[in-house]
Amino acid sequence: MSELALPARIALVGNPNSGKTALFNALTGSRQKVANYPGVTVERKEGVVVTPAGLTVRLIDLPGTYSLRARSLDEIVTRDVVLGRLAGEDVLRLLVCVADSTNLRLALRLVLELKHVGRPMILALNMFDIARHRGFEIDLDRLSAELGIPVVSSVAVRRGGTRDLLTRIDEVIGEHGMPSVEGTWSEPDAAALRVTQRRADRILDAAVRIPGRPDGFTRRVDRVVLHPVLGLVILLAILFLMFQAVFTWAQAPMELIRSGFTGLGVLAGSVLPQGWLLSFVREGLISGLGSVLVFLPQILTLFFFILLLEDFGYMARAAFLMDRIMGGAGLHGRAFIPLLSSFACAIPGIMATRVISSRRGRLATILVAPLMTCSARIPVYTLIISAFVPARTVLGWFSLQGLVMFGLYAAGIASALGMSWVLNRLLWRQDRSDPFMLELPDYKRPILRNVALGLLTRAQIFLRRAGTTIFAMMVVIWFLCSVPPAPVDATEPAINYSLAAHIGKAMEPVLRPIGFNWQIDVALVPGMAAREVAVAALGTVYAIEGAAEDPGELGRVLTAHWSLATALALLAWYVFAPQCASTLSVVWRETNGWRWTAFLFSYMLALAYLAAFVTYQTALALGAG
Amino acid sequence: MPATARRFCNEKPTGGMRALGTAPVGFRGRIRAVQVGAGDHELPAAEIERQLLELGFVEGARVEVLHQGLFGRDPIAVRVNETTVALRRREAAAILVEQDDG
To answer: How far apart are CA A488 and CA A493, in angstroms?
Structure first.
């Protein structure tokens, strides 16, 4: 292929909240794909655009940044792609700098910095309609002359709003377009930043008339939403509604996925002959994938709200409201969204920590995210609570079962905050947390299309993860649970003859002080696949058919076999236990190695043992044995 | 310390100057200096200074304190020219501001 035939590569750069991703979506539509940059876990979004002149262009959406100076993982990638330093990435033909027309001051400084890169550049003044509506007067020609680059207006959310930009792209990358020149960028120091900002301010004064009044809507909403007391109440109410939705809306699709995988299992049973292949396909492949994929609806429901609130501009406010509360534990305000996501599943939560710029801040968030009560714990909690905690009201109003459930959630949150405190103060001896500085963007009407495309991306990432690392772990667990196979004259369930049973029985002396019998120990092994799998595994060990579908029967068997102390100890165990191979594999990837993964596994295991031990012994002493 | 900052400090040691970190909600003024003391933060002072500059906290910028958190009146939301930025009072202590007249 000749060099001319290769599609030109163009990158979108810009400040956070400049509407860059909305513009990317408008330009590429659904013709986009998400992958990781080679060797790093930063998402790489690329799409294809065909220009009016018929050129095919590959467009890259880079993470938002204020400068090419890099601190977080995201920003390092932005810098290296822009400078053409990243191995495996082609050199860019053109930079499109995207700016919020109502907030040009910082964007112009970035433009002036980016000019040193030496690539051709276009400045796209996004949200131009909002700016005009609010009374901004922007002289595009003057701005273009002052900056020395083409400047176009764009409205990402309106049809045809990107026409000027596309036409200008054609001009710049066409045959008589602008060439690249030698780059002279170097990291600016404070003095250089001041000089550039002063230049940007002068250009702004010359080319833009800014209305005296700020956005009235944003001011009015913030007066309520950022009110010290009312703001927290509203945040709690929003969180409450989100969780309601996560646990009600997601029910139907989850049932669908469950029965779908059950159906697949039945199908496999009718097609394949009895034997290890069937066992591998049915218990390894189908149940393994099913046990993780079943959480997709909850993850997507939660992300629907997060993306919606993010698009509206609320998420930065939530970080503002939570910063002090989390900062006391040494967590960054930006850790709020990752930890929130972890209530559905720790995997998207851990992956969302990439926006945290400090390495320790990010690591602390990754290490405590699995303590948040993920939805895989719920089946275990409900099974034990409904079987052992009497359904009666206390204090005249509260259901005792509900209170226990609430207590388990609270224990998860408290231990996450406590662990972060321990990590920061004792392990890293860091008595000051990293600075929290975050732009609070003006509120915008959320664009459903952006939310939908964002959700699609989330789903893609989760499915890819489930299809690779997570899947490999599932196969290992299947192997442990089905090898060696049960003898022909077996009287007990097959799992009781497997390696898992050997492991479980070997663990019995260790786990006896916390009240676990060998049946529980065996169920813990397949429970490594996902916490909720332990429910089905208990059913298997106690030889109850269909335990996952009807936990009532299993509950009755458990009350006959376990003491209350054992049941409570198991609840305490599940608050902390690192019973999730998928989480461990994601932590492995995100922290680049086994060290922190091993640390996570050990500290959670130690906490789980300690909590179960204290619970069991206390319950025994109180006569619940 | 940048030359400009030192000049401003020496010229007006008290006057209407105060650290933005101590300003109450409703405060309006102009930034006269951004100077991060060494050892005040986990990150190097020069890094904090650059982060503040990148978010628009430069000498001459108009600021208004809009909101504050419940606990310890921290963090604060500050209008800087046309941008609103949330930051903690600890970092805002590095920003010296002069109150608007009237």
So the answer is: 12
d(CA A114, nearest CA chain B) in Å:
14
Please name the residues in contact with A119: beta carbons below 8 A apart, sequence gap of 6 or more. Answer: A82, A92, A93, A94, A95, A180, A183
What is the Cα–Cα distance from A315 to A49, expressed in whole angstroms? 30
Catalogue all structural domains in chain A, each as residue range(s) with its CATH number.
3-209 (3.40.50.300), 237-376+399-427 (no CATH), 469-621 (no CATH)
Residues in B closer than 8 angstroms to A434, CB to CB, are 42-43
Q: Please tell me the distance from the alpha carbon of residue A529 to that of residue A288, in angstroms, as a whole number.
A: 7
Residue of chain B whose alpha carbon sits nearest to that of A220: B66
pLDDT bin (cut points 50, 70, 90) of residue A3 is: very low
Q: List chain B pLDDT tens, one digit each, 102 residues.
A: 444 444 444 444 445 789 999 999 999 999 999 998 877 676 788 889 999 999 999 999 999 999 999 988 989 999 999 999 999 999 999 999 999 875
A105–B56 C-beta distance less than 8 A: yes
A15-53 exposure pattern, b = at least 16 Cβ within 10 A, e = fewer:
bbbbbbbbbbbbbbeeebebeebeebbbbbbbbebebee
Q: For residue A21, give both structure tokens.
A: 């991703």
Q: What are phi and psi of A12, to 5 degrees?
A: -95, 125
- pLDDT tens string A297-341: 887 888 898 889 988 999 999 999 988 888 888 888 888 888 988
CATH (domain of B55): 2.30.30.90
> Do residues A458 and A300 lie in contact, with contact meaning Cβ atoms separated by under 8 Å?
yes
Spell out which residues of chain A touch residue B59, defining contact as CB-CB under 8 Å. Answer: 194
Q: How far apart are CA B47 and CA A71, in angstroms?
A: 10
- Taking an 8 Å cut-off on Cβ atoms, the answer to whether A103 and B91 are in contact is no
Residues 6+ apart with CB under 8 A from A456: A30
- pLDDT over 60 at A109, yes or no: yes
C-alpha pair distances (Å), A462 with each of A294, A408, A443, A553 = 12, 26, 29, 33
Could you read off the pLDDT of A408-443 as tens digits, one per residue?
988 999 999 999 999 888 777 765 667 889 999 999
Please give the residue range of the domain that contains residue B81: 3-99
Contacts of A483 (CB under 8 A, 6+ apart): A498, A499
Query: Which residues in A lie closer than 8 A to residue B50 (C-beta atoms)?
Result: 67, 69, 188-190, 193
CA distance A348 to A462: 7
Domain count, chain B: 1
What interface predicted TM-score (ipTM) does this complex get? Answer: 0.85
Question: Best interface-test mutation with B: which of A72, A101, A236, A437 has the largest number of B CBs within 10 A?
Answer: A437
Nearest one of B50, B60, B55 to A205, comparing CA atoms: B60
